[in-house]
Design brief:
The complex is a heterodimer of chains A (339) and B (551). Chain A is an alpha+beta fold and 339 residues long. Helix content of chain A is 40%, strand content 23%. A 6-stranded antiparallel β-sheet of chain A has the order 9-8-7-6-12-13. In chain A, strand 10 and strand 11 form a beta hairpin. Helices cover 54% and strands 10% of the residues of chain B. In chain B, helix 4 runs parallel beside helix 13. Chain B is globular, with a radius of gyration of 23 Å. Classes of the chains: A alpha+beta (339), B alpha+beta (551). Chains A and B meet through helix 13 of A and helix 3, helix 5 and helix 13 of B.
Chain lengths: 339, 551
């Protein structure tokens, strides 16, 4: 593949392309390549970021800002000051024409393909290494100006204080942070959340654990609400446990992005997924796990108003953190009995 | 000597060499047991409690052992050797896994079998049988007692371990002791066959109230009650209901672990006495009112408790909790089938022999059959004329009379009393019978401290009753103090304020029933009947397992 493209469609990518478009985009491309439903969209490449820095000539200024504080980046007051200066510098730039042309052309194509003018999209960061929560993503982005504006903001989010501190403590270059950006059709999620293809607390690899809430998955990822929990057996997709919690808050899209809102009273104690939805989600997730060959941490969403198969989207798939060593609960009981 | 069965005699030297300590079987004593029951229970009960650990390949214990000492029962436990433990453990794990996968079925499946067969035996026409048919029946039911005791002890070992370990886990993870109300709440609100019998009884009492018969019940003595009811139409209507109740549940006897007292079938007045108390105290039964509340509360507490358990231990915790709950229900319910129905069937057949032998002049009184062993009954059953049982009976009755004289003098523990904890640890199921008190009475400033409690606090006048034959002396609102209660005491829990027992452990009858009836109880105090006198004002705190005499 030509590595000098500024944008790539999801269908052109696979997991080999971490360095080209960032991990998140490469993984979504990999999912698309095995026939898993992912949102339509494209990736703005790392190369595009590099061209942005070259054309605007801000590299020197960024280097200078970092050198001012030298090794004291771990001191919050100093680190935060550098972070905001660098971010302001980036956000003050204009996206150069050679980049904005292809980005806007691709956005136009999304609008044409879906017959929606100014289609709402999500603009998400995709670093080459994953730094959970360190960088920013924007939801419900619409129209040319907004897309370019959010592209700049995501680029600048590679310099949030958390991201800078992460690179600093891991001995990575602090001033040079090339990232990819995903521009994806916004999924109008009815319910969304995460699925782990193994039980992260018990270490049991024979079941998946789903956490689900109404609205977008951000409420589950960020932990603002107590989500519903489903356990699904890997061998026959039996739902072995179903805990329906009272879900007070959800994240929903608004004109100007996404907001945390109250769940309507009538829905708070209703299951956010039907049994059929749980089983289909688990079935597809186990397929993803088989493809990756290891326990996988998955973000997913169900859209409203579609048939079951057409409403399920996968937004993210990455290896799970190392699992605790699994011990069968009955064996634990027997050990206790023997004292 | 143990009624011509010296193998059951306690040997002061030998039996203290192999066993750490022996505990008085306070649930079943006093009064002393009659020879036929010693034969029945030492043949099959002792078999069952050693068979179950053997069949489960239990790595730690060979089960309980029993001895008679001056007519009193003592129990202990024989531990396995280190080598046996290693060999048994893998087999035991496989067998216990099956039980833990579905704890409720361990008892429920056996209960269904017992129900069908035992009610079949109950329908046998004793009076119409020939001598040959009667002996045939005797052997059938005697040998079936083997299966009855297997059904008794397999769940007791399989599930009982779950209860005991769950108790330890609650303490370890959440610092909850068996005396804590949370422990009780996790184990109450279940239906069991025995409570059902009491609830049905209260319905029969309610009918009497609806029919306007309260005055008749209040003004009549127990003897006069039925004749007085016969004189009115409503009274006769009620007697029909009563007869139907007795027909269905007449296998109940006052004493569980004994067969020398009559069933309700033989003497319906025993049930009538309970019903009379219900009618006079206004009807209604506490467990019916409290069960839905307790069941709902249990579900809440389950979730609260599980949420406090570290997530990686929750699945294990739930498995153990269900096993513990199933064990608690089994512990109470098995007595209806084992100690009531099965033993009553043996009793009724024995009494038929008693009547026939008396008619032939082999015995002086039908009740003397209780002093004859099973093989002796069978031996004499078909060729009755050739056997004179009177001399044997006379000798054993003298022995029995001697035991009665010393029945309140037996030490609670034989051997080293400080070893009780070790005995309980070696065979966890043993804790059903006895466990050390939760604290030392003198250190906490209480008169008595028990090993477990049912939640609540009550104060009132103490009433000491030494055995089942005293049950009719119970009055409403007293604090009942007894060596132990058995299933037939269940209706009494409806009218007393609280219960205190000498004996008992974590799954003892008084504890389980008190929880279901929502009254406080303290069990395993070892000496309540000796330290408290009738009429004294006492305070019972089931939450702390403590009892104080206030005057």
């Amino acid at each position: 593949m030509e590595r000098k493209q500024k944008i790539y469609w999801m269908g052109e990518l696979c997991r080999e392309h971490n360095d080209v478009v960032g991990k998140k985009c490469a993984n979504l491309g990999e999912l698309a390549s095995i026939g898993v439903r992912v949102p339509k969209g494209f990736a703005v490449s790392v190369h595009a970021w590099q061209r942005f820095v070259e054309i605007t000539g801000i590299a020197g200024e960024m280097k200078r800002l970092f050198e001012e504080e030298g090794r004291d980046l771990h001191v919050p007051s100093k680190g935060q000051k550098v972070s905001s200066s660098v971010r302001a510098l980036i956000e003050a730039q204009k996206v150069p024409a050679e980049i904005s042309d292809v980005v806007l052309k691709s956005y136009e194509r999304m609008c044409e393909d879906t017959h929606v003018s100014e289609i709402p999209v999500a603009v998400r960061s995709a670093g080459a290494v994953s730094m959970p929560g360190a960088m920013e993503s924007y939801l419900n982005v619409r129209g040319h100006g907004d897309v370019l504006n959010k592209l700049l903001r995501v680029w600048s989010s590679a310099y949030t204080y958390r991201a800078v501190l992460y690179r600093h403590t891991h001995n990575l270059a602090v001033d040079y942070a090339p990232i990819g950006v995903a521009v994806l059709q916004l999924v109008e999620a009815k319910a969304a959340g995460v699925l782990m293809t193994a039980n992260p607390t018990s270490g049991n690899t024979d079941e998946a654990v789903i956490e689900s809430n109404w609205g977008l998955g951000e409420s589950v990822v960020s932990g603002v609400t107590n989500p519903d929990r489903f356990n699904v057996a890997k061998d026959d997709l039996t739902i072995t446990s179903k805990v329906i919690n009272k879900k007070v808050k959800e994240v929903i899209t608004r004109e100007d992005g996404s907001v945390l809102a109250d769940v309507p009273a009538g829905l708070q104690q209703m299951p956010s997924l039907t049994d059929e939805e749980v089983r289909l989600l688990a079935q597809e997730s186990f397929r993803i796990e088989r493809h990756f060959g290891e326990p996988t941490d998955i973000e997913w969403a169900y859209e409203s108003g579609q048939s079951l198969e057409e409403s399920l989207y996968f937004l993210q798939a990455r290896p799970m953190k190392p699992l605790p060593k699994y011990k069968d609960p009955i064996d634990k009981v027997l050990d206790l009995m023997l004292g | 000597m143990a009624y011509d069965k010296p193998i059951y005699d306690f040997d002061e030297e030998y039996d203290l060499k192999y066993y750490k300590a022996w505990v008085l079987g306070a649930q079943w004593f006093p009064p002393p047991l009659v020879p036929l029951f010693v034969d029945l229970h030492f043949t099959w009960g002792k078999y069952g409690m050693q068979w179950a650990p053997a069949m489960l390949s239990d790595p730690r214990t060979k089960g309980w052992d029993w001895r008679l000492r001056n007519g009193a029962w003592y129990l202990s436990v024989l531990e396995t050797t280190e080598e046996e433990r290693k060999q048994l453990e893998p087999i035991w794990r496989e067998k216990m896994r099956k039980i833990l996968e579905n704890p409720w079925s361990t008892w429920q499946d056996r209960k269904a079998n017992l129900h069908e067969t035992l009610f079949g035996f109950a329908a046998f026409d004793l009076a119409g049988a020939t001598d040959g048919e009667l002996v045939d029946h005797w052997y059938t039911i005697w040998n079936y007692s083997k299966y009855v005791q297997e059904c008794h002890f397999y769940p007791m070992y399989g599930l009982g371990q779950g209860n005991i370990v769950f108790r330890r886990l609650l303490k370890q993870l959440l610092n909850i002791t068996p005396a804590d109300p949370i422990y009780s709440e996790l184990h109450s609100g279940f239906e069991n066959a025995f409570t059902t019998i009491t609830e049905r009884m209260s319905e029969v009492a309610d009918v009497a109230i609806q029919l306007g018969l309260v005055d008749t019940f209040k003004t009549s003595t127990l003897e006069d009650l039925l004749p007085a009811l016969e004189t009115t139409e409503n009274g006769r209507k009620w007697i029909e209901q009563f007869d139907e109740y007795i027909r269905q549940y007449g296998f109940i006897r006052r004493r569980g672990m004994e067969i020398c007292t009559p069933t309700w079938w033989e003497d319906p007045k025993l049930a009538l006495a309970d019903i009379q108390r219900f009618v006079i105290t206004g009807g209604g039964v506490r467990s019916v009112e409290s069960r839905p509340r307790l069941a709902a509360r249990r579900k809440e507490v389950e979730e609260e408790v599980v949420a406090k358990v570290p997530p990686e231990e929750r699945e294990m915790f739930r498995k153990l909790m269900v096993c513990s709950q199933a064990s608690s229900v089994f512990s109470e319910e098995h007595t209806m089938y084992v100690e009531m129905l099965a033993f009553s069937i043996i009793r009724l057949a024995a009494m038929e022999f008693g009547r026939r032998f008396t008619a032939k002049g082999m015995l002086d009184d039908p009740n003397d059959i209780m002093f004859v062993h099973s093989d002796e009954i069978a031996h004499s059953g078909m060729i009755q004329e050739t056997c004179d049982l009177k001399k044997m009976v006379e000798r054993r009755k003298e022995e029995y009379a001697g035991y009665r004289e010393v029945e309140n003098t037996h030490p609670f523990i034989l051997g080293d009393p400080t070893k009780l904890g070790e005995v309980v640890d070696a065979d966890v199921v043993f804790a059903v019978n006895a466990a050390p008190p939760v604290a030392k009475a003198e250190e906490v400033g209480a008169t008595l401290v028990g090993c477990a409690g049912a939640p609540g606090v009550a104060e009132g006048e103490a009433l000491i009753l030494m055995g089942d034959e005293d049950m009719d002396k119970v009055r409403a609102g007293v604090i009942l103090v007894v060596p132990a209660t058995t299933a037939s005491w269940t209706p009494v829990f409806n009218i007393v304020k609280a219960v205190v027992t000498d004996g008992g452990g974590y799954l003892t009858h008084a504890l389980i029933v008190a929880r279901e009836f929502g009254i406080p109880a303290v069990v395993g105090t070892q000496e309540a009947t000796r330290k408290i006198r009738t009429g004294q004002h006492v305070k019972v705190d089931g939450n702390l397992c403590r009892v104080w005499v206030k005057d």
